[in-house]
Each structure stands twice: as structure tokens, then as C-alpha cells.
Amino acid sequence: MRNVPSDIEIAQAAKPKAIVEIAAKLGISEDELELYGKYKAKVAPGVQKRLADKPDGKLILVTAITPTPAGEGKTTTSVGLTDGLNKIGKRACVALREPSLGPSFGIKGGAAGGGYAQVIPMEDINLHFTGDLHAITTAHNLCAAMLDNHLQQGNELGIDPRRVVFRRVMDLNERALRNVIIGLGGRMNGVPRESGFDITVASEVMAILCLASDLMDLKARFSRMVLAYTYEGKPITAADIGAAGAMTALMKDAIKPNLVQTLEGSPAFIHGGPFANIAHGCNSVQATRLGLKTADFLVTEAGFGADLGAEKFLDIKCRMAGLCPSAVVVVATVRALKMHGGLAKTELGREDLRALAAGIPNLQKHIENIQKYGLPVVVAINRFPLDTEAELALVEEKCRELGASFALSEVWEKGGEGGMALAEKVVEACEKSSSFKFIYDAAMSPKEKMNAIAREIYGADGVDFTAQAEKDLELVHTLGLDNLLVCMAKTQYSLSDDTAKLGRPSGFRITVREVRISAGAGFLVAITGAIMTMPGLPKKPAALSIDVDENGKISGLF
Fold first, then answer.
1. What is the DSSP string of 25-75?
2. Is the pLDDT of residue 109 over 80?
3. Is the pTM of this model over 0.90?
4. Burial of 158 (0-12, 13-18, 19+ CB in 10 A)
5. Which pLDDT score is estimated for 110?
6. Which residues participate in catalysis according to the annotation?
7. Which residue, of 46, 172, 370, 505, has the fewest CB within 10 Å?
8. Is the model more confident about 2 or about 353?
9. Which of 62, 71, 7 is nearest to 334 (CA)?
């Protein structure tokens, strides 16, 4: 077997172009960049204003089947498709999310693509990058500190310490901090109360960054964040404790989109990074709009499967930002479909048409989900070395039966050349007529919205609400917030809320155990099943393999 270099080795061997050269491809001048070294830059807000009257390019969303340990390659496909579009003569760029340090040092590893379809500088992007996630963490925790200081300094607003709902965040997986008691040690050390930590990507500050249209919209959304309640039940916001201005000051640079490049020199915007299982799973509206104004085709990805990231991209982001995709790519692998068909991970290297056929209904469901939005679908069959011709032919046959266009994707091994066939199919799909529509009406009640998502997108029989969720929804109604959209927090490993239910399960119901108000972001977060907003490290975290030598060269980062 030939020796295949690791992702980081491929990235480190690349010879990137100066970022000012990449920006020039998009019509962005050096004066409109804020340089972070030679290969990274933030784009000044004036660019969007300058291009406001320019027609938008085509918006292409990349999503996937239900993820498995076998791997699907959504980000890799997004990068390779962008390079493929440029290779066939189209002006294309990609917009991705910023990786969180949680999975980078936890179970997933890096998130900058893979093989010969990566964004670079890979180590920077996967680690501190331009500091956006640190700014989000600090802005969030400043607000939490100001809230606790208000309690300490006399509590003029009459906040009930038992009803503080704003937790702290950090950008690492740390199960020991899910539930904590703060303020111990006497009067000078604060007011004792129960609290906890979420991961930064689950912060409402992150969601707001990714949905805000500009700096002042960011500030206005911060002002509306609900932090706590008084003894009389009145909501207390960030504006009430005077935190919004200082938070915005901390975020004044983080709100600017980041520009980098692919291995082949395609422009790449990487900005914002909410998870799709516990948040809305999309990069920033600003980066998306910038890409649409500067390229003829913008490729973007939404986290996990079409039941999570794609649903939130379409029902939340597109609705709020007035976006309309031209086509959607659903990434599938033979390996993952065989796992959905019941084959163990250790057996995936052998041909098994029976298991593959049994797993294909999962792909079918994700295709149907996108078709329900009235959008053209292209299936990217992400080829792995051990896939057999018979297995690939079976997936192609099923795609034809489902009325979905498809193409073999070999971008991991061949980069843009391996994405040219997919690019051709995507261009064809973009020319098809579509009738984009949402799965639910914003005027529905929260329960109706959650049921619509569960029934139409997950294939559930309905939604059950715990006593706590019912209490939460009663409060939502009392506060006049029934019009907020819905962001479902659900496991990524199943269409249901049970990780053990692979394939295309049926006869199940979704259990909502808690509903959190994210008034600044503009949605309610429905916590389902056993999903956690602060992940834990696995038995053997990726951090065990990461190291650096005396020259500062990093190894083991995926």
C-alpha cells in the first residue's frame, strides 16, 4: 500500500499565495483588508457597502447524510467543489465555519477539509486563527461577570439568583464544568448560586455573530439577550445591566469576515462556527453575503446532516437574511451507508451490497428533505479507496430512482480535478427552476414549529414535551415570544433523538426536555433527548496525538 501523507503534511507542503493576491480575485483591494500576517486577512465592512448594488452569485449549500464514524467529508467536498468550479472556468469561492478547539482536541480532530481539498493555513485555522472564538468567549463571559457583579453590588434590579439562565462558556470539551456552584468563600466572593458552562459554539453570542447584518445590528441583538428573571418574573436583558456596549467593543474586529485560501488558491471565507447539533450550524451571514457579491458561485456548508445544519440554514439563516439557494449538494459515502445498513465499522472494507441497500433509505430521506424545500438536489458520492464498482453503481441506481442528480467526487485524492464532474452537475442544477419554501410558518406556535420539523424533516410521529419544557413554553408565551423561530438541539448520529437508531427509523417520537430563549439570535433552542451543550472528552482525545517540535512545526492535528 502506498504511503499517503496526512492532512497536515499535505497542508504544510503547500505553497500558498499572498492573501492580497487571493483578495484581488474577488475584486477586493489591499486597502480593504486587515492583514493577519501574509496568508490571513479580515475584510473591512466597507466592501459590502461598496458592492451593495451588485447582483448576487449562485448560492450552493453542501449538506450530508446522517454522519457516522465512517466519515462523510462534507467540508472536504465543499472545498473540492469550489476548486472544481474554478477548474471548469467559473468564478467560485467557499464560505465555511471556523473550527472549535473542542473537537480539534477532542474526538473529531481538525475541520479544514482533508487530503487535497483543504483550506490553509490549516494549523492556524484549526487553532487560534484570528481570535474570533476567543473574542466570543470573552464577550459572553464579560456579560456573565457583569450580571454576577450586579447581584453582588446590591441587586437593584431585584434579580432572583435562582433564575439566572445565562451560563458561562469556554471553547474546550469539559464535562466537569457542566454544572458548578459559584460565589463560595464568603460575602466578598459573590452570591452563591448554581451555574455551569456551555461550549463557546453553543453561546448565543456566537449565534448572534453569525446572524447579525452589521456592527450595530450585533449590538442591538446583544441588548435583547435574556440573562435572568426578577423575583416578580420580569426578564432581565444584557441592556438592563448595561453590558451590550462593552460586549460589542470586544466584538468589533471579530464581526469582520476572515479570508484565506484553498490548496489550489480558491478564495475561502471562514467566519463563525456554531455547531449544528446544539446551535444553528452555519457560517456568518456577512461572509455569505460577501461571497455572493464577489463570486459567481458561492459554496457553503451547514453542519452534520440535512436534518440539522441544512434545516437550520434554510429555515433560520435564509429566512432571516433573505437568501435563496440555487442548489443543494448531499454528500454520501458507501462506507457510511453500509454502517446505516447495520455493518460494523471493522467490516466496512469488504463489499456488502445487502448492507448498502439497507442503508440507502437514510440517503433517500435526506434527498426528500431537500426536495420538500423545493430545491434541486445533487448527490456527491464521496469515493473511498475500497469502494467497489458494484457498490458505487448501486448508489447511482438509487439516486436515479429518487430523481436526484449525482456525481462521483474524488476531491480528497485529486483536489479540484476530482471535483470537476460534481461541479458540472451543480452548474446544471443551478439552472433548473425551483420554488424555495420553508418547512414551517413563523406565525405558528412554538409547539407547531417543533412538530413540523420533527414530522417533516426527522420522520417522527410527533413531539413529546417534559414538564420542564411545558413550563418553558408557557414562559415564552407570557413574554410574547411565540413568533421566534426554532433551533432544535438534537443528536447528529440519528434522524431521531436516539443515537442507536441508524438508517431511516420510523415509529418514533422526539422528546423536548427544555426550551431556552435566545431572543437576541431570534430563536428558541429546543433541547431534545440526551443532547449536551457542553461536550466531554473521549477516552483517547485527539490532544494526545498533537505535538510541536523545536521549530514550532505542529504534528498530529488531524
1. HTT--GGGEEESSSS-EEEPTHHHHHTTTSPP-EEEEEEES---TT---HH
2. no
3. yes
4. exposed
5. 62
6. 74, 76, 97, 108, 276, 304, 384, 412
7. 46
8. 353
9. 71
